[in-house]
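Handout, section 4.2: multi-component inputs.
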Amino acid sequence: MPVDYLPILVMIAIVTAFAVIALTLSAMTGPRRPNPTKLSPYESGMPPFGSARRRFSIKYYLTAVLFILFDIEIIFFYPWAVLFRDLGWFGLSAMGTFMLVLLIGYVYVWRKGGFEWD
Amino acid sequence: MDFFDNIFTNIYAWLAFWLHELLMGWNLPKDVESALVSAIMIILVIIVIILWMVLMVLILIWLERKNAARIQDRVGPNRVGPWGLLQPVADTIKMLIKEDILPENADRFVHTIAPMIVMMPPVLMFAVIPWGKGMVPVDLNIGVLWIIAVASIGTIGVFLGGYGSNNKYSLLGGMRAVAQMVSYEIPQVLTIVPIVLMVGSMSLVKINEAQSGWFGMQWFVFAFPVGTIAFVVYYLSALAEVGRTPFDIPEGESEIVAGYMTEYSGMKWALFYLAEYFNFFIVCVIGATLFLGGWNGPILPGYVWLVAKTYALVLLGMWIRMTWPRFRVDQLMNFAWKVLVPIALVNIVLAGVALPIFKMIGF
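Output:
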């Protein structure tokens, strides 16, 4: 029922208000004495060089893609798990096939070194 | 005992009734009046829940500092209030009146919005937890799915914080945090499947009911081997997901200063800090609900049991934090993908195959 989610909406509103009020209060009460050194990015006391908006390792991208793939597939387990008793052996065999496909992909990624991190 | 068990539901019913009486005098149409009453009650319940959460987290922060001190043979906070109990409050006030530094070239909007996004999901997860008999703020029939879905929002906030600060440590920390959080989400999501499978519902209330019964023998931790394995995998991946110390790569002080929090100060930093403890508390509550029987327990009222079980998990987490050194990044990722995911997958197969066989032999 969509009505069930009404309290959640209220909750989002109240939490957002809480965060905004906290930040505004701190902006109002806190001092504001900026100077160039304070505003420069922290690099362990060294003079900062270059921008931080730079390229980073492809590893992170690979992890994100793997996450999306696995997460989408895992979500299919949930409806099956809820209806497990009703579906019986048919559901079990269907899910076994699904699991097998998932496992083949998993083993493939493992063999290809997708999980290596160095 | 019934009195204490139902005290909160009774207060709720009494308040709703009183509100009803109050509105009687206004001669509103019937449906408008009932809608108004339920709206006010919803807002009240949610405010109470948020206050409850803040209180729990303040206690948690105090407990962690005290506990860490004891383990490291120190005294810990003992100046503000009795046994230093008011230390978190003093810290909050101090954070509030600190300067908020916005580094140059930082993305102003992203930098500000990141802590807000980070602290929102754990509060939303609080809404669906059954705190006691009939004490569910929002009873969703897809409670488990809701928790999983909302939990992943925090990742975005962490990355925004890392990216928006224009600092190399922040960026590295943010990337690491995202990689770690999404990696450990896989085993966490997988390991709840056997529970849903055993109960046949995603509602947390139903999951709680399925674990009632005499003296905790129906708890899913004791449903050997499936439930036990699921619990261990859940707890480890939950600790990693919230970035507690053996898994605190995203903010490893000795490597990347403070990770995505490097450029944050004042209240923004406090929101990150708060979110960390919100998260830690909420994963322990969910662990207690899913695996330790939730509010089921003899003699004492339900909410006392839930809080006690939660604090048992919290103390375990603190103990692990204080006694283990940090993992290396590659060890951490390997642990998620090569250890926890296969275990969780095998566990699902075990649950799927074992249940029909148990049913066949009439267990």
